[in-house]
Prior knowledge:
Keywords: Dioxygenase, Iron, Metal-binding, Oxidoreductase
Family: Belongs to the iron/ascorbate-dependent oxidoreductase family. GA2OX subfamily.
Number of domains: 1
Helix content: 25-40%
Pfam families: 2OG-FeII_Oxy, DIOX_N
Oligomer: single chain
CATH superfamily: B-lactam Antibiotic, Isopenicillin N Synthase, Chain
Order of helices and strands: EEHEHHEEHHHEEEEEEHEEEEH
Low-confidence stretches: none
EC number: 1.14.11.13
Radius of gyration: 19 Å
GO molecular function: gibberellin 2-beta-dioxygenase activity; metal ion binding
Amino acid sequence: MAIESAEECELPLIDLSMLKLGGSESEECKAQIARASQEWGFFQVINHGISNEILENMRREQVDIFKKPFHEKENMCFPAGTYRWGSLSATCLRQLSWSEAFHVPMNNVSGVSDNTGLSPTMKRFATTVSHLAQKLAEILAEKMGQESTYFKENCVPSSCYLRMNRYPPCPVPEIPGLMPHTDSDFLTIVHQDQIGGLQLVKDGKWFAAKPNPDALIINIGDLFQAWSNNVYKSVEHRVVTNKQAERFSTAYFLCPSYETKIQSCMEPSVYKQFSFREFRQQVQQDVMNLGYKIGLPRFVI
């Protein structure tokens, strides 16, 4: 089955340096973040506080690791289960992901062996990007008129993680780099290269996000949609493959502990209260039984 075409678009671009100006400039920046989260579920940020040096070093060392032979990647000094490839749950062609990844929980970042050459760089990247995620979550909570301590208390290093992705060149255009899905977290921060391939749904149509070398991409996850009572949108997105070029990206996922209760911050609530553990178990069960994720509709009142 052919992947439907997507029109190229530029995601909302927000200059976070406005936050430091205070007054009306800061409030306008916060309003832009909230508006993009409501209308798109995706946006880009520049002047985000993560230096080009950190981003460039992260990308260079990430590429070096993915270039190693398969048996070396499997046996590198990462925590067990970190290296993944394809889609183990795929039952047909459209569910296959043409990609490989290192999936590293934040509390394991400092434990990554120095002989990979990645540990110091990963630690710097993880520290700075986690601060940015907390800042954005606080802003989104503030714009809902809510206290922001919820995210600091529940989204701790043991529950958040980094995912380094490689999408090899693919000769079969029907195979996706990553099948359509929504993210099962509060929000995701992505640093991608210039190859492109990220696509998202808006108003029932697929759009291809134009890469911006100076920006990080932010997208809202299922938990923020439930917490905000559908004010902020977790939208379906995918990665398409490229016949000639490989694509690299690094994503940070702001997740709560499994015991954290997710409850809408206003009434009447669209969703019943659930724990993150219950949500993850339901997603895993659906993927196993159906081959795909259902997600939030399972928890509608």
